Amino acid sequence: MKTIVVGGSGRVSQCQKPRGWLGRFVLRNMNSRHSKVTDWGLGHVRIQPHYTILDVGCGGGSTLCKLAGVAAQGKAYGVDYSEESVATSKRTNAHWIAVDRVEVQHGSVSQLPFPEGMFDLVTAVETHFWWPNLPTDMREICRVLKPGGRLVVIAEVYKGANTTVAKLAEKYASKTGMTLLDIGEHRALFANAGYSEVQIIEERDKGWMCGIGRKP
Protein backbone atom coordinates (compact mmCIF):
# COMPACT_ATOMS: atom_id res chain seq x y z
CA MET A 1 0.00 0.00 0.00
CA LYS A 2 2.98 2.38 0.15
CA THR A 3 2.31 3.48 -3.41
CA ILE A 4 -1.19 4.55 -2.44
CA VAL A 5 -0.25 6.71 0.52
CA VAL A 6 3.04 8.39 -0.18
CA GLY A 7 3.33 8.58 -3.96
CA GLY A 8 1.35 11.75 -4.61
CA SER A 9 -1.99 12.28 -6.27
CA GLY A 10 -0.88 10.81 -9.61
CA ARG A 11 0.27 7.58 -8.04
CA VAL A 12 -2.90 7.36 -5.94
CA SER A 13 -4.98 7.71 -9.10
CA GLN A 14 -2.97 4.96 -10.79
CA CYS A 15 -3.60 2.56 -7.90
CA GLN A 16 -7.30 3.31 -8.03
CA LYS A 17 -7.60 3.11 -11.83
CA PRO A 18 -4.36 2.15 -13.65
CA ARG A 19 -3.84 3.56 -17.13
CA GLY A 20 -1.03 4.08 -19.60
CA TRP A 21 2.59 3.05 -19.16
CA LEU A 22 2.64 4.03 -15.48
CA GLY A 23 -0.51 2.01 -14.91
CA ARG A 24 1.15 -1.04 -16.44
CA PHE A 25 4.10 -0.60 -14.09
CA VAL A 26 1.79 -0.29 -11.08
CA LEU A 27 -0.10 -3.42 -12.11
CA ARG A 28 3.10 -5.47 -12.41
CA ASN A 29 4.11 -4.24 -8.97
CA MET A 30 0.71 -5.16 -7.55
CA ASN A 31 0.94 -8.69 -8.96
CA SER A 32 4.14 -9.24 -7.01
CA ARG A 33 3.42 -7.24 -3.86
CA HIS A 34 -0.07 -8.61 -3.16
CA SER A 35 0.81 -12.28 -3.65
CA LYS A 36 1.45 -13.15 0.02
CA VAL A 37 -1.64 -11.45 1.43
CA THR A 38 -3.71 -13.06 -1.33
CA ASP A 39 -2.44 -16.54 -0.45
CA TRP A 40 -3.10 -15.87 3.24
CA GLY A 41 -6.65 -14.70 2.58
CA LEU A 42 -7.56 -17.49 0.17
CA GLY A 43 -6.24 -19.97 2.71
CA HIS A 44 -9.30 -19.24 4.86
CA VAL A 45 -11.77 -20.64 2.30
CA ARG A 46 -12.14 -24.04 0.69
CA ILE A 47 -12.14 -23.77 -3.10
CA GLN A 48 -13.60 -26.80 -4.87
CA PRO A 49 -12.21 -27.90 -8.27
CA HIS A 50 -15.55 -27.33 -10.03
CA TYR A 51 -16.13 -23.78 -8.75
CA THR A 52 -17.13 -20.87 -10.95
CA ILE A 53 -15.31 -17.87 -9.45
CA LEU A 54 -15.34 -14.11 -9.96
CA ASP A 55 -12.44 -11.82 -9.01
CA VAL A 56 -13.74 -8.25 -8.64
CA GLY A 57 -11.12 -5.60 -9.35
CA CYS A 58 -8.85 -8.18 -10.95
CA GLY A 59 -6.01 -5.68 -11.49
CA GLY A 60 -2.94 -7.32 -12.99
CA GLY A 61 -4.54 -10.77 -13.04
CA SER A 62 -2.34 -12.68 -10.59
CA THR A 63 -5.27 -13.66 -8.35
CA LEU A 64 -7.16 -14.95 -11.40
CA CYS A 65 -4.15 -17.10 -12.26
CA LYS A 66 -4.10 -18.55 -8.74
CA LEU A 67 -7.84 -19.24 -8.81
CA ALA A 68 -7.71 -20.94 -12.21
CA GLY A 69 -4.99 -23.24 -10.92
CA VAL A 70 -7.08 -24.32 -7.92
CA ALA A 71 -10.48 -24.59 -9.66
CA ALA A 72 -9.08 -27.10 -12.13
CA GLN A 73 -12.51 -28.19 -13.42
CA GLY A 74 -14.20 -24.80 -13.16
CA LYS A 75 -13.69 -21.32 -14.53
CA ALA A 76 -12.46 -18.01 -13.16
CA TYR A 77 -13.82 -14.66 -14.33
CA GLY A 78 -12.27 -11.27 -13.75
CA VAL A 79 -13.84 -7.82 -13.93
CA ASP A 80 -12.21 -4.41 -13.59
CA TYR A 81 -13.28 -0.88 -14.50
CA SER A 82 -9.76 0.00 -15.66
CA GLU A 83 -9.25 -0.92 -19.30
CA GLU A 84 -5.49 -1.16 -18.63
CA SER A 85 -6.17 -3.68 -15.85
CA VAL A 86 -8.35 -5.74 -18.18
CA ALA A 87 -5.61 -5.79 -20.83
CA THR A 88 -2.91 -6.70 -18.30
CA SER A 89 -5.05 -9.44 -16.74
CA LYS A 90 -5.60 -10.91 -20.18
CA ARG A 91 -1.85 -10.96 -20.85
CA THR A 92 -1.13 -12.51 -17.44
CA ASN A 93 -3.72 -15.23 -18.05
CA ALA A 94 -3.19 -15.79 -21.77
CA HIS A 95 -2.74 -19.55 -21.30
CA TRP A 96 -5.86 -19.95 -19.16
CA ILE A 97 -7.91 -17.83 -21.57
CA ALA A 98 -6.76 -19.96 -24.51
CA VAL A 99 -8.15 -23.10 -22.83
CA ASP A 100 -11.36 -21.33 -21.73
CA ARG A 101 -10.55 -21.43 -18.02
CA VAL A 102 -10.37 -17.66 -17.52
CA GLU A 103 -12.44 -14.79 -18.91
CA VAL A 104 -11.82 -11.09 -18.23
CA GLN A 105 -14.38 -8.33 -18.76
CA HIS A 106 -14.48 -4.57 -18.42
CA GLY A 107 -17.10 -3.48 -15.90
CA SER A 108 -17.93 -1.99 -12.51
CA VAL A 109 -18.60 -3.64 -9.17
CA SER A 110 -21.68 -1.41 -8.96
CA GLN A 111 -23.24 -3.09 -12.01
CA LEU A 112 -21.62 -6.46 -12.60
CA PRO A 113 -22.07 -7.84 -16.14
CA PHE A 114 -23.20 -11.26 -14.93
CA PRO A 115 -26.56 -12.93 -14.22
CA GLU A 116 -27.95 -13.58 -10.78
CA GLY A 117 -26.67 -16.65 -8.95
CA MET A 118 -23.73 -17.43 -11.25
CA PHE A 119 -20.76 -17.80 -8.88
CA ASP A 120 -19.72 -20.19 -6.13
CA LEU A 121 -17.10 -17.75 -4.89
CA VAL A 122 -16.33 -14.05 -5.36
CA THR A 123 -12.96 -12.62 -4.35
CA ALA A 124 -11.93 -8.99 -3.92
CA VAL A 125 -8.23 -8.36 -3.22
CA GLU A 126 -6.95 -4.88 -2.36
CA THR A 127 -9.89 -3.19 -4.03
CA HIS A 128 -12.98 -2.75 -1.83
CA PHE A 129 -11.74 0.50 -0.24
CA TRP A 130 -11.98 2.12 -3.70
CA TRP A 131 -15.57 1.01 -4.47
CA PRO A 132 -18.06 3.83 -5.20
CA ASN A 133 -20.63 2.73 -2.62
CA LEU A 134 -19.61 -0.11 -0.32
CA PRO A 135 -23.08 -1.09 1.01
CA THR A 136 -24.78 -1.25 -2.40
CA ASP A 137 -21.73 -2.78 -4.09
CA MET A 138 -21.66 -5.57 -1.48
CA ARG A 139 -25.32 -6.28 -2.28
CA GLU A 140 -24.54 -6.32 -6.02
CA ILE A 141 -21.93 -9.02 -5.39
CA CYS A 142 -24.46 -10.95 -3.31
CA ARG A 143 -26.78 -10.86 -6.33
CA VAL A 144 -24.35 -12.76 -8.57
CA LEU A 145 -23.47 -15.36 -5.91
CA LYS A 146 -25.22 -18.71 -5.83
CA PRO A 147 -27.15 -19.47 -2.63
CA GLY A 148 -24.50 -20.75 -0.26
CA GLY A 149 -21.74 -19.01 -2.24
CA ARG A 150 -19.15 -16.91 -0.45
CA LEU A 151 -17.56 -13.50 -0.81
CA VAL A 152 -13.94 -13.13 0.34
CA VAL A 153 -12.56 -9.61 0.80
CA ILE A 154 -8.79 -9.40 1.33
CA ALA A 155 -6.75 -6.29 2.12
CA GLU A 156 -3.35 -5.36 3.50
CA VAL A 157 -4.60 -2.18 5.14
CA TYR A 158 -7.62 -1.36 7.31
CA LYS A 159 -8.54 1.10 10.05
CA GLY A 160 -6.87 0.18 13.32
CA ALA A 161 -4.12 -2.02 11.88
CA ASN A 162 -0.82 -1.70 13.71
CA THR A 163 1.36 -0.75 10.74
CA THR A 164 2.87 2.49 9.53
CA VAL A 165 1.22 2.10 6.15
CA ALA A 166 -2.23 1.59 7.68
CA LYS A 167 -1.82 4.65 9.90
CA LEU A 168 -0.76 6.76 6.92
CA ALA A 169 -3.68 5.43 4.89
CA GLU A 170 -6.07 6.48 7.68
CA LYS A 171 -4.48 9.91 7.92
CA TYR A 172 -4.81 10.64 4.20
CA ALA A 173 -8.02 8.72 3.46
CA SER A 174 -10.05 11.88 2.88
CA LYS A 175 -7.55 13.02 0.26
CA THR A 176 -7.07 9.68 -1.49
CA GLY A 177 -10.75 8.76 -1.60
CA MET A 178 -10.23 5.46 0.24
CA THR A 179 -12.98 4.14 2.52
CA LEU A 180 -11.20 2.49 5.43
CA LEU A 181 -13.20 0.46 7.95
CA ASP A 182 -12.20 -1.16 11.21
CA ILE A 183 -12.87 -4.80 12.05
CA GLY A 184 -16.28 -4.14 13.58
CA GLU A 185 -17.34 -1.96 10.67
CA HIS A 186 -16.33 -4.68 8.22
CA ARG A 187 -18.43 -7.19 10.13
CA ALA A 188 -21.42 -4.84 10.02
CA LEU A 189 -20.84 -4.18 6.31
CA PHE A 190 -21.21 -7.88 5.49
CA ALA A 191 -24.18 -8.41 7.81
CA ASN A 192 -26.09 -5.35 6.60
CA ALA A 193 -25.62 -6.45 2.99
CA GLY A 194 -27.37 -9.74 3.76
CA TYR A 195 -24.44 -12.12 4.26
CA SER A 196 -24.51 -14.82 6.93
CA GLU A 197 -21.77 -16.75 8.75
CA VAL A 198 -19.61 -13.62 8.66
CA GLN A 199 -15.96 -13.99 9.66
CA ILE A 200 -13.46 -11.16 9.93
CA ILE A 201 -9.90 -12.39 10.36
CA GLU A 202 -6.98 -10.08 11.00
CA GLU A 203 -3.21 -10.10 11.25
CA ARG A 204 -3.03 -6.76 13.03
CA ASP A 205 0.75 -6.44 13.09
CA LYS A 206 0.89 -7.07 9.33
CA GLY A 207 -2.14 -4.97 8.59
CA TRP A 208 -3.86 -7.88 6.86
CA MET A 209 -7.63 -8.37 6.90
CA CYS A 210 -9.84 -11.08 5.43
CA GLY A 211 -13.62 -10.82 5.50
CA ILE A 212 -15.81 -13.78 4.55
CA GLY A 213 -19.57 -13.91 4.16
CA ARG A 214 -22.03 -16.50 2.84
CA LYS A 215 -25.12 -15.81 0.72
CA PRO A 216 -28.03 -17.50 2.52
Overall pLDDT confidence = 87
Beta-strand percentage range: 15-25%
The CATH topology annotation reads as: Rossmann fold
Number of structural units classed as domains = 1
For CATH, the homologous superfamily is named as: Vaccinia Virus protein VP39
In the CATH hierarchy, what is the architecture at level 2? 3-Layer(aba) Sandwich
Report on this model:
- The chain has 216 residues and is α/β, with parallel strands linked by helices.
- It has one domain (2-214): Rossmann fold (3-Layer(aba) Sandwich).
- The chain is 43% helix and 23% strand.
- The chain contains eleven helices and seven strands.
- The longest helix is centred in the N-terminal third of the chain and has 14 residues, at 20-33.
